[in-house]
């Protein structure tokens, strides 16, 4: 089993799409939010919207870590990068995200030492190879990524690597879902739950969504059949008037999550009292900072961080798009001032941002499924 | 960046077995097993990899189970229609096999 092709089988995709049409009540309009940016990307990439009946609307959620990061944090990180003795490292996704005075890539072109890493462990190795420099890792990501940062920091401490620090922008998914549900302009019938975050936190933390908010949620994988099966499962719950947390992605997600990963996170991180999210504003206890034991490896404690706050350009409607209130193409700047080549907002930069995904795939419609009949 | 990809462990490496050589789409890469040590991953196991770390073991049994469910999706419906054709639709319960 290769775990990829099997979940793109056209015959099964047709079956699942038929089942969805059979289950969906034509008199109803369904709004399902996919929380995770990886899902948003997969939905556009595989043209899944074309397979769904028009009364099932997929609303894109806030689960793109690059997109929810306020510009001030990027400015803060880059201000430290500009010190001569610092190597700024980040994932490739961060490189084109605009800061007030340019993106990390533009800083790099102007001579700042900025390097792409694929893993936080690579940043630590870079510090060990460059003892006369300070290597700072600009960390972003939800609970999927935070354990890898945590384990890297535990190793830095164990091996006493003094010229390495982490600028933590890690965020947590549950408070973001809560903020969406508390938002007055939001109406969601059910959730397509994040798959990879759940490999770490498991399925239990979503219980309140079913029990208190009375919304079904199905933790879902990223292949076309995963997403379609999850829509089937959500429709079945709604039709049977049930509200449960279900795990569609059993082959990867254990119900209890990954204990070792949670332990590493708990060892290194603590919750910030509050953190600003682009588009959603300040959300309490929604982000992670390093514990006091790790102060020596905390960029924010080792350096003077300016704490910049910038408001996004007025015409940019990233906030509304992030909350799912507007579709990407409804933003006034979409495809005009704001394109993947010249992004105004982060949603146009990250491949998981809904604006970039919509721009790259929606008008081309060149999907692997294009030979299938449209819904 | 939340991208995660499946790969198959070719060989477990490192003093503490916390590294592995993993085949990802035909390319061999070193992957950190530090977050998965409780699961005792061994050669031949499939793992989900994110930012250089194995996050989760992939269960072949669950994958097969899922594909079986998907294969049955339409058939269950065909069975219901078949039974309804007999004019005994009152017998059809929630699972389509009689209530
Ligand atoms: S088109 Fe650009 S400015 Fe408008 S919401 Fe998308 S990323 Fe933001």
Tell me about this structure.
The complex is a heterodimer of chains A (375) and B (99). Chain A has 375 residues and is α/β, with parallel strands linked by helices. Chain A has a domain of 153 residues: HypD, alpha/beta domain 2 (Rossmann fold, 3-Layer(aba) Sandwich), CATH 3.40.50.11740. Chain A is 35% helix and 17% strand. Chain A is built from 14 helices and 13 strands. In chain A, helix 2 packs parallel to helix 14 and helix 6 crosses helix 11. The mean pLDDT of chain A is 91. With 99 residues, chain B is α+β, with helices and mostly antiparallel strands. Chain B has one domain: Roll (SH3 type barrels). Chain B is 26% helix and 31% strand. Chain B has a 5-stranded antiparallel sheet, with no helix packed on it. Chain B starts with a strand and ends in a 14-residue tail after the last helix. At the A-B interface, helix 1, helix 5, helix 6, helix 8 and helix 10 of A face strand 4, strand 5 and helix 1 of B. The site of iron/sulfur cluster (SF4) has 14 residues of chain A, from helix 13.
Count of DSSP-assigned helices of chain A: 14
Number of helices of chain B: 1
Query: What composes the largest sheet of chain B?
Result: 5 strands, antiparallel
Structural class of chain A: alpha/beta
Average pLDDT rating of chain A? 91
* Greatest chain-chain contact: A-B, 58 and 35 residues
Largest sheet: number of strands, sense, barrel closure of chain A: 5 strands, parallel
Percent helix of chain B, as a range, is: 25-40%
Main CATH class of chain B: Mainly Beta
Précis, in short:
Chain A has 375 residues and is α/β, with parallel strands linked by helices. Chain A has helices at residues 10-23, 37-45, 71-81, 104-109, 120-129, 146-158, 173-182, 195-201, 207-211, 224-239, 259-268, 299-302, 318-323, 354-362; strands at 30-36, 56-63, 86-90, 114-116, 134-141, 164-170, 190-193, 217-219, 245-247, 269-271, 274-277, 281-284, 288-290. In chain B, strands 3-2-1-4-5 form a five-stranded antiparallel sheet, with no helix packed on it.
């Amino acid at each position: 089993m290769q775990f990829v092709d099997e979940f793109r089988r056209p015959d099964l995709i047709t079956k699942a799409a038929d089942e969805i049409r059979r289950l969906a009540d034509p008199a109803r309009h369904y709004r399902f939010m996919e929380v995770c940016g990886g899902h948003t990307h997969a939905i556009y990439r595989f043209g899944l919207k074309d397979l769904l009946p028009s009364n099932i609307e997929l609303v894109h959620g806030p689960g793109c870590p690059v997109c929810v990061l306020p510009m001030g944090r990027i400015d803060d990180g880059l201000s430290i990068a500009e010190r001569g003795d610092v190597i700024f490292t980040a994932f490739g996704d961060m490189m084109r995200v605009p800061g007030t005075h340019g993106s990390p890539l533009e800083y790099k072109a102007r001579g700042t030492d900025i390097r792409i890493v694929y893993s936080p462990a690579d940043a630590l190795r870079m510090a060990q190879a460059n003892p006369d420099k300070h290597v700072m890792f600009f960390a972003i990501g939800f609970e999927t990524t935070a354990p890898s940062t945590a384990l890297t920091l535990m190793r830095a401490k164990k091996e006493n690597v003094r010229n390495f620090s982490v600028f933590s922008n890690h965020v947590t998914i549950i408070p973001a879902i809560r903020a969406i549900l508390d938002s007055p302009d939001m109406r969601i019938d059910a959730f397509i739950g994040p798959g990879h975050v759940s490999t770490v936190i498991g399925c239990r933390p979503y219980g309140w969504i079913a029990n208190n908010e009375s919304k079904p949620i199905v933790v879902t994988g990223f292949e076309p059949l995963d997403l379609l099966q999850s829509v089937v499962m959500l429709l079945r719950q709604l039709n049977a008037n049930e509200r449960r947390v279900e795990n569609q992605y059993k082959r990867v997600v254990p119900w209890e999550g990954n204990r070792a990963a949670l332990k590493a996170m708990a060892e290194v991180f603590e919750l910030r009292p509050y953190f600003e999210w682009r588009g959603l504003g300040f959300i309490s206890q929604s982000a992670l900072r390093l514990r006091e034991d790790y102060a020596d490896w905390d960029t924010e404690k080792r350096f003077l961080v300016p704490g910049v706050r910038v408001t996004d350009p007025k015409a940019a409607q990233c906030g509304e798009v992030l909350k799912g209130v507007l579709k990407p193409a409804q933003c006034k700047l979409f495809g005009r001032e704001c394109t993947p080549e010249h992004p105004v907002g982060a949603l146009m930069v990250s491949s998981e941002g809904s604006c970039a995904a919509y721009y790259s795939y929606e008008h081309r419609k060149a999907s692997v499924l294009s030979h299938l009949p449209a819904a | 960046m939340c991208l995660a990809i499946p790969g198959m462990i070719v060989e477990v490496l490192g003093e503490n077995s916390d590294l592995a050589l993993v085949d990802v789409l035909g390319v061999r890469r070193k992957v950190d097993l530090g977050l998965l040590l409780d699961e005792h991953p061994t050669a031949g196991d499939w793992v989900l990899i994110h930012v250089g770390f194995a996050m989760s073991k992939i269960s072949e049994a669950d994958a097969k189970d899922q594909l079986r469910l998907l294969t049955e999706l339409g058939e269950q419906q065909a069975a219901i229609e078949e039974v309804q054709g007999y004019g005994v639709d009152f017998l059809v319960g929630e699972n389509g096999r009689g209530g």
